[in-house]
Write a structure and sequence with these properties.
The complex is a heterodimer of chains A (about 250) and B (about 400). With about 250 residues, chain A is an alpha/beta fold. Chain A is about 40% helix and about 30% strand. Chain A has one domain: P-loop containing nucleotide triphosphate hydrolases (Rossmann fold), CATH 3.40.50.300. Chain B is α/β, with parallel strands linked by helices and about 400 residues long. The chains are: A alpha/beta (about 250), B alpha/beta (about 400).
Chain lengths: ~250, ~400
């Protein structure tokens, strides 16, 4: 068996005085799509931020191996260059930074970190045009400052555009379905599904089963009070939808 | 303050006094002898205590040796060099530009030491009359050349009704502890449209004082931008009088400060007639132990109903020891106006920084992107392409400089 793409072992994380993650164990193999479901406040988003390297989190115990490397030793930009990508629940608006400038800076920074040559402008333009077309992103949107004036749906599509262009090995989708109507959800899901492949692993965080009708997971984990309390196949999501989270809280408390 | 007891003068004050006497400016000398340079007890100089900050005054400027290359070389610009206060106008003026000289500084008398020094020391000032649509950028290239010198210069710019012009003033010079005192008046006739930019690029060892005084007649439009990015001690004062209805101005300014630098922009504008509008956006970035000061005062007189004035000042502190001081002030005597001011100050936004880094952009590059984005709107208001490019270049070179 090859090295798992991501191994999280007994991860404990605090924010200020509060322990948010209390012993998370997860193993994601190459090519798999895992879903994490859980109610608000269960620690799902914290996990995604810790994976991407956001400051303000104190790791008190445990480790994270990404493709065999110790992820916690790496800066956020190093993680990105190594192949980690987080699609934000709330993408950040940055006035004064043109979307295209940002995309080019990101792609070239990653290429540079991997010792590859910079993209030529025509190659860059071509790549953006292709990826944008699939996500129904209009050129006009790309001319605006990064995420500024984008609707909720546009922001999520822009995240998937970045994901497509950066071609990461591990995609973390943090509540990508929130704020999307059904049409936008379909576009975004199609975009994500196109990126599925044997060398790419995905971690889909959501609290609704709805998204998982479009992005069908191989494995579903239920998160409660900062840890995984149940793991199963896609039918677990349906069960959860029918019964609610309450049943799982009990097991966690026990 | 009517304190009759003579104060003990500092070395800098003694030198200034002797210089004023030497040019026969006995009245200005008398004021200086009685009250000295302003200290923090003088409201307008509260954050820029000149008595403390000004330790040396170089000798009055003599004739200039040959000038160096221009600080900004704007393609197609009509450049007028004023070296050590002497107007060296070699080129042919473009259509709509009449260049001459006048006796004395055009600055109005004010109870302000920098204005007083300028009016006392300027012998001959540049006089520009602009008519019609002046396409070429007018570049007033003020220099202090040779050994450290105290040089005063001034320009009167009169823009005829309906005329349009872009005027860039740069202050630069040889690598010496110069002290520059510049004065400019810009009068916008009815319906005139003017962009006026002042950039300090003196060496760090120098001191730069500048005063700009605008007067806006009816229906005129002004874009004003001041950048302090040269002399370690700098204060640029911007005065404006809205004298005609429906006149509008957008005021911008920037202090870029590093360790051992103190840069001040002081704005004092008066909406003196009804139906005039203005926006004010002043930004400061401080690194190391740098100190930036912005004072902005908007006065709306009793009859100036329907004034709309929106002032914003934003500070970006890139180190623990940086200091940014901001004092926005509205003085409103009319009762039917829309006026507001806001002030923000902080370091780079962590969330934005994380977002950029999470896409693979290294920290230093991500920080530069965010600083550029903080500054973008200052340069966005400048339509003259080459000027905007030069200003962007100036900002980029400051960012690329290793902080002290």
């Amino acid at each position: 068996m090859s090295t798992p793409m991501l191994e999280i072992k007994n991860l404990h994380v605090r924010v200020e005085d509060q322990e948010i993650l209390r012993g998370v164990d997860l193993t994601l193999n190459r090519g798999e799509v895992h879903a994490i479901m859980g109610r608000n406040g269960s620690g799902k988003s914290t996990l995604s931020y810790v994976l991407a390297g956001k400051e303000d989190y104190e790791i008190t115990e445990g480790e994270i191996l990404f493709d065999g490397q110790n992820l916690l030793d790496m800066e956020p930009d190093e993680r990105a260059a190594a192949g980690v990508f987080l699609a934000f629940q709330y993408p950040i608006e940055i006035p004064g930074v043109a979307t295209m400038t940002f995309l080019k800076a990101a792609m070239n920074a990653q290429r540079k970190a991997r010792g590859e040559a910079e993209l030529s402008t025509p190659d860059f333009m071509k790549a953006v045009k292709e990826a944008a077309g699939l996500l129904e992103i209009k050129q006009d949107m790309l001319k605006r400052p990064l995420n500024v004036g984008f609707s909720g749906g546009e922001k999520k599509r822009a995240e998937i555009l970045q994901m497509a262009l950066l071609a990461p090995k591990l995609c973390i989708l943090d509540e990508t379905d929130s704020g999307l109507d059904i049409d936008a959800l379909k576009i975004v899901s199609d975009g994500v599904n196109k990126l599925r492949g044997p060398d790419r692993t995905m971690l889909v965080i959501t609290h609704y089963q709805r998204l998982l009708n479009y992005i069908v997971p191989d494995v579903v984990h239920v998160f409660s009070a900062g840890r995984v309390v149940e793991t199963g196949d896609k039918s677990l999501a349906l069960e959860l939808e029918a019964k609610g989270y309450a049943d799982f809280d009990g097991e966690n408390a026990a | 303050m009517n304190d009759q007891t003579p104060i003990r003068l500092s070395g800098a004050e003694e030198t200034l006094l002797a210089q004023l006497e030497s040019v026969g400016a006995h009245e200005a000398a008398g004021v200086l002898r009685a009250s000295g340079l302003p200290t923090r007890r003088v409201e307008a100089y509260h954050y820029t205590d000149l008595r403390m900050l000004l330790s040396d005054v170089p000798p009055l400027a003599g004739p200039a040796p040959a000038s160096g290359a221009p600080e900004f070389d704007i393609p197609g610009a009509y450049r007028i060099v004023v070296a050590n206060g002497e107007i060296q106008n070699a080129g042919t003026a473009p259509a709509g530009v009449a260049v001459s000289t006048r006796k004395g500084s055009p600055l109005d008398d004010r109870d302000d030491v920098l204005v007083r020094l300028n009016t006392a020391l300027v012998g001959t000032a540049l006089d520009l009359e602009l008519t019609g649509s002046v396409d070429a950028v007018i570049h007033i290239d003020r220099r202090l050349e040779g050994d450290a010198a105290h040089g005063a210069s001034a320009a009167r710019i009169s823009v005829a009704p309906g005329a349009t012009a872009t005027i860039l003033e740069t202050i630069s010079g040889s690598e010496a502890a110069h002290m520059s005192n510049g004065g400019t008046t810009v009068t916008l006739g009815e319906g005139a449209k003017v962009t006026h930019i002042v950039v300090d690029r003196l060496p760090e060892s120098a001191t730069q004082f500048g005063t700009v005084d605008y007067r806006l007649e009816a229906d005129s439009r002004l874009v004003s931008l001041v950048i302090n990015a040269g002399a370690a001690l700098a204060r640029t004062q911007v005065f404006a009088e809205f004298a005609g209805e429906r006149s509008h101005s957008d005021f911008f300014g920037l202090n870029l400060v590093d360790t051992d630098e103190h840069r001040d922009i002081t704005l004092d504008i008066r909406h003196a007639v009804p139906n005039t509008t203005s926006t004010e956006l002043y930004k400061q970035i401080a690194r190391g132990r740098g100190k930036g000061v912005f004072q902005g005062k908007i006065t709306v007189v009793k009859d100036a109903q329907k004034t709309d004035a929106q002032m914003m000042t934003q500070g970006l502190m890139l180190s623990e020891e940086a200091e940014i001081l901001a004092k926005p002030e509205l003085v409103i005597y009319a009762d039917d106006v829309v006026c507001a001011h806001g002030a923000t100050c902080g370091d780079l936004d962590d969330t934005s920084l994380f977002y950029l880094m999470s896409r693979g952009i290294p920290r230093a590059e991500a920080e530069t992107m965010l600083i550029r984005s903080f500054l973008a709107e200052l340069v966005d208001g400048i339509e003259a392409e080459y000027v905007a490019e030069a200003l962007t270049g100036l900002i980029d070179s400051w960012l690329a400089k290793v902080p002290k």
